[in-house]
Structure formats: C-alpha cells, structure tokens
Design brief:
The complex is a heterodimer. By secondary structure, chain A is mainly α. Helices cover about 70% and strands about 0% of the residues of chain A. Chain A is built from five helices and no strands. The N terminus of chain A is likely disordered. Chain B has a six-stranded antiparallel sheet with strand order 1-2-4-5-6-3. In chain B, a hairpin with a 4-residue loop joins strand 1 and strand 2. Chain B is globular. The chains are: A mainly alpha, B alpha+beta. Chains A and B meet through helix 2 and helix 3 of A and loops of B.
Chain lengths: ~110, ~150
Amino acid sequence: MRANSRRQLPEIEEAKNVSTFDKVADIISETSEIPRDEITMESHTIDDLGIDSLDFLDIVFAVDKEFGIKIPLETWTQEVNDGKASTEEYFVMKNLCGKIDELVSAKA
Amino acid sequence: MQLELFKMIDRISAVDLDARKLNASSTVPDESKVFEGHFPGHPLVPGVLMIETMAQASGILIMHTIDFEKIPFLAGVKEGKLRDFLGPRAEMDITAEIEHEGSGFAVTRAEIRSEGKRVANAQLTFTIRPFPTAELQKTIIREVAEMKKSG
C-alpha cells in the first residue's frame, strides 16, 4: 500500500503541474493574444512572450480568480528590483506555475 | 463638478468597507468650457469624463481600503458602456465596488445612474503606487473629507 502510494506520487505532482500550466497558458493566450502553441514550460513571460506590465496585471487578475489565490506581485517585483531574485525565478512559465501551486497548497 | 478641472465627484454619501462599496453623487454644471466644444450648441458630458467619474469613485474607494497610504492610477477599462447622454444640470448617482484586490493592483466595477436609469458602467483596473508627493496625499485626503461632508 505504502509502496504503491510512493510510486504514484510523482505522477500526481506532474499531472497537477501540467494542469496548472494549461490553465495559465490559456489565460495568457486569451489575455495577450499570444498563440497558445508558442507558450511552453520554458517560456519567459516577459523576455520571450513580450508580456508588458498591463497585460501582466490582467493575467495575474485572471490567475488570482482562477486559483483563488493572491499572487504577491509587489513582493516579487521588489525582490527582482533589489537583486534578491532573478526574473527567471518568478516569470519563466514552469517556475511561475510552481509558485502558483505553492500558493494553492498554502491556501488549503 | 468642474469638468475642465476633472473634479468629477461632488458628494460621497457612503463608504462601506465590509461590502467594499462606495456611493457618490454629482451634479453636472450649467456651464463649462468643455461644453463649448462638446458640442457647440448641444452640450453633452463627454463619455471619457463619465469613465473618469467612475474611475475617481473607484479610486477613492480603493484609497479607503488602504488608509490613503498609496494612490491608484487607472490602468485599464473593460466592458465600458456609455448607454445614454448627460447634459447640463443632470444628476449622477455613482457606485463603485471592488471586484478584486490584488498585490499592487485592484479591479472595480462602477456605474453611473441618472434619474434611476443606468447611463454608464465599466470594469476598471488600477495599479496602486506610492504617492508621488506627500503634498498630493494631503490634498487628496482633504478633498475626499470635503466630499464626505457634503454627502
């Protein structure tokens, strides 16, 4: 029983992440008119996808609502501006989706 | 209401912080420089100033929720609808409600009614920033207090 649970855990985590990615990519595509197939796990939302600050607000609004969370955008921006974090840490899709999953888990 | 100075809100009658809702009202002036151009002989409140009125009501509401420590700037207008004309002496009843409080931004829904009829509504996005100067912060706090006294 326990061995079975262990074996399943990575699959569940992966599935959850893919689902988050799909939802976020759909939101970005609808908000920013970026073709959905151009958005990958490795895409940098600012450098690669060229999302500007206003579109990013719309995306964060939609993500907050979709997941019932509050993305701490001010804190992230401050950390990047202060050199305490790189933009990749928060704004590359796979990392952004990971942060969203963390916020959803923290809420639960 | 002084259209040419963008002073759009005359009176604030209620700020409900639990419901995240504000009620305000304004009276369109009999005369204004704006009416000389919009339009000659046929004065109408420009639609952009109706949007501005809803934005100011929303902005005042947002500032109440953050104790006037920062200032919201209008960043987006969605589903903006201008449903009817307003001319001199028209009474405006303005309501604003916060739809979402994000980190460094907020989204509201606002509308203007006149004689019970909805004349404009929109979903508005604001980016919330530090006041550019302490003087501006004081001026806004004083002006909002006057609007509440009139309400």
